[in-house]
Amino acid sequence: MLGIVSFANASNLANPASALPAANILLGASYHLGGYSLTNMEVPSMFNRFHGRIDYAPLDFVSFGVDLGSIQIDVDQYTAGADTVSLFHGNYGFSGGAHLKLSSPFFLNKMLSVFLITQGTMFSSENSNKVSYGGYDGCGVVGLQIRIPKFGFVSIGPMAYVIEGEAKGIDNAKEFYSNVNNLRGWIAIDYHLKSTELTKGSAYISLEFSASPAANTSSRIPVQDFSFSISIGFISGKMYGDDKQPR
Q1: 223 in helix, strand or coil?
Q2: Is-contact 123 135, C-beta < 8 A?
Q3: In terms of residue numbers, what domain contains 68?
Q4: Count of domains in the chain?
Q5: Does a structural domain hold residue 220?
């Protein structure tokens, strides 16, 4: 039987949230655990996602890149009319897309900045019965970033996301779906390790949390309308230009 579900990949925006300096390349990896409400019935769902990221900054305060990885999805059972749709447990499938990060110069004694991060992702998942779910999502956050000397950055703001896709049932019938509860509060913490003499680069660790006013739990889907992400990576140091970092 066909179940109408959606899978939001509104996650891992902070990898890291802080701006990438011009002529730098970033390599990162992330894990995301997220819960989302699906369709107008607000069916609980949860997914695990692993992504790798490459990011490039042609200018100060502007960077963009790609994200590639895999996603695994669980969806709680629900009742539609006289039918009960059983719990869905999907296998790992494709997840990938692109992102853009913009930020202002720091002001107020170089302690505050305004930033915007947006991301678009395609995804797919299939269970052992060949029921499959695919689609795309877009998400973004705009807010304030606070510099913490000798540590890193804290970023806060509202996050919005939209999801559209197609679900294919065991009988190959297809139905369109989209998401609900589109707005969340969002916070990220970036910790930057000191650069080393060997590379003149910088390693980082980022933690990210988002929650909707409708955040909840259930016995089968413990994470609903909130999410957690952890990311690690390495920033190259300036690759070219007059003040190129020595390698």
Answers
A1: coil
A2: yes
A3: 24-235
A4: 1
A5: yes
Q: What SS3 state is found at 101?
A: strand
Neighbours of 5 (CB within 10 A): 26
Residues in contact with 55: Cβ distance below 8 Å, sequence separation at least 6, in sequence order = 15, 20, 25, 26, 28, 63, 64, 65, 99, 101
pLDDT per residue as tens digits for the range 151-193: 999 999 999 977 787 877 788 878 777 778 888 999 999 999 8
**Which residues, 6 or more positions from 108, have their beta carbon under 8 angstroms from its beta carbon?**
none
With tokens 């066909």, the residue in question is 2
* CATH number of the domain where residue 155 is located: 2.40.128
Paired strand residues for 124 = 134
Distance of CA 44 to the CA centre of its chain: 18
Report pTM.
0.86
* pLDDT, tens digit (0-9, with 9 covering 90-100), for 55-68: 999 999 999 999 99
11 located within any domain: no
- pLDDT value for 57: 96
Looking at residue 24, the DSSP 8-state letter turns out to be E
* Sign, CA torsion 90/91/92/97: negative
Least Cα distance to 17 among 114, 95, 110, 98 occurs for: 114
Cβ(227)–Cβ(210) below 8 Å: yes
The 3-state secondary structure of 145-206, one letter per residue? EEEECCCEEEEEEEEEEEEEEEEECCCCCEEEEEECCCEEEEEEEEEECCCCCCCCCEEEEE
Instruction: Output the six-digit token pair for 149.
Output: 């000397």
Contact 96, 124 (CB under 8 A): no
Question: 78, 55, 32: which is closest to 229 by C-alpha?
Answer: 32
**In which residue are the tokens 């499938």 written?**
93
